[in-house]
């Protein structure tokens, strides 16, 4: 049976290392081995291992040094470390635990004991994983708009300033697009709020399909108004992107009961290219410019784009 937690072995004795590899693979574990602590630490830095079995006495970097090196470096999850040693005095055990080991095995190791102790480690790692997953779900709920699935105002307020600060620091362009569904109140009045909710979900879905994964993002600003953040995007490119979004929205249809509902949206664009010497500025100013451009698009007849370049 395949186990989801790979194991890294650090053991300088070739016979012991091969025996341990065979035992663990027969038990269903994926195993990678190193001949000393330094080699093991190099492997660990290139790939995360949640379980490490390390001998105490090794050349170049011993087991205690390997424990300390791992504990002193940030990792993507908890690392359960077994220290393997012929030393079994109370003093030696304390020294090993203080160095960062979680458990120890005495040489020569007993196969049944090794597998049993690994099961204990797995329970701890599974608990840590479930806690991380639960925390991530809570975090996502706290920053996600419940109806549409895009980011909410809380996320926008926190991360927009970071995006703009990053652009300013590295002198990279960034653009914002404020968008609003045209005549949305009329949709709710004519078809009902359930239809309105469905249209909001679809609207965000159509927008997301045209955004770059892990680069651009969209947040619900309020009601039927949304803010789209386009890092590494100058004003002309943002205007082109907004036009593509406008066409996508106008060409798509929402099927509700026995009706096909079409909508349009208006877009307000603001682009910013930082220059040397301009270190900070309030992100509220960019939002205000994007909002004013959106208002202009609405005023001129809706289903169109208006924009301006932000100047500090």
Show the helix and strand layout.
Layout: E1 7-10, H1 14-26, E2 31-34, H2 37-46, E3 51-55, H3 63-71, E4 80-85, H4 90-99, E5 103-106, H5 111-143, H6 153-170, E6 174-181, H7 184-191, H8 193-209, E7 217-222, E8 225-231, H9 235-251, E9 253-256, E10 259-262, E11 265-272, H10 283-299, E12 305-309
Parallel strand pairs: 1-2, 1-3, 3-4, 4-5, 11-12
Antiparallel strand pairs: 6-8, 6-11, 7-8, 9-10
Helix pairs in contact: 2-3, 7-8
**Beta-strand segment tally:** 12
CATH level 3 topology of the largest domain: Alpha-Beta Plaits
Low-confidence stretches: none
CATH architecture of the largest domain: 2-Layer Sandwich
Beta fraction: 15-25%
Distance, first to last CA: 62 Å
Structural class: alpha/beta
CATH homologous group name of the largest domain? Reverse transcriptase/Diguanylate cyclase domain
CATH top level class name of the largest domain: Alpha Beta
Largest beta-sheet details:
5 strands, parallel
Strand order of the largest sheet: 2-1-3-4-5
Rough shape? elongated
Question: What's the number of domains?
Answer: 2
Helix content class: 40-55%
Please report the number of helical segments: 10
Radius of gyration from CA coordinates: 28 Å
Mean pLDDT: 91
Write down the secondary-structure element order. Answer: EHEHEHEHEHHEHHEEHEEEHE
């Amino acid at each position: 049976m395949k186990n989801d937690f790979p194991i890294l072995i650090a053991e300088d004795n070739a016979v012991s290392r091969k025996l341990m590899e065979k035992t663990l693979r027969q038990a269903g574990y994926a195993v990678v081995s190193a001949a000393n602590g330094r080699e093991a630490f190099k492997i660990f830095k290139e790939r995360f291992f949640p379980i490490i079995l390390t001998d105490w006495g090794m050349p170049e970097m011993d087991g205690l040094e390997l424990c300390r090196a791992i504990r002193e470096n940030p990792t993507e999850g908890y690392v359960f470390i077994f220290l393997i040693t012929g030393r079994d005095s109370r003093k030696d055990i304390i020294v090993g635990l203080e160095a960062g080991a979680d458990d120890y095995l005495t040489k020569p190791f007993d196969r049944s004991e090794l597998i049993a102790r690994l099961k204990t480690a797995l329970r701890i790692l599974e608990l840590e994983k479930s806690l991380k997953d639960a925390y991530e779900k809570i975090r996502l709920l706290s920053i996600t708009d419940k109806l549409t699935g895009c980011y909410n105002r809380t996320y926008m307020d926190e991360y927009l300033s970071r995006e703009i600060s990053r652009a300013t620091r590295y002198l990279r362009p960034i653009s914002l697009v404020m968008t609003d569904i045209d005549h949305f109140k009329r949709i709710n009045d004519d078809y009902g709020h359930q239809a309105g909710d469905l249209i909001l979900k679809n609207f965000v879905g159509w927008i997301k399909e045209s955004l770059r994964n892990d680069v651009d993002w969209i947040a619900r600003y309020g009601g039927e108004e949304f803010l789209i953040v386009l890092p590494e995007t100058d004003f002309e490119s943002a205007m082109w992107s907004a036009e593509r979004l406008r066409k996508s929205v106008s060409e798509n249809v929402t099927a509700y009961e026995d009706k096909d509902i079409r909508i349009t949206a208006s877009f307000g664009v603001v682009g910013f290219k930082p220059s040397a010497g301009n270190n900070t500025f309030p992100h509220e100013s960019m939002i205000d410019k994007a909002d004013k451009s959106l208002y202009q698009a609405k005023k001129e007849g809706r289903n169109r784009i208006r924009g301006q370049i932000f100047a500090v």
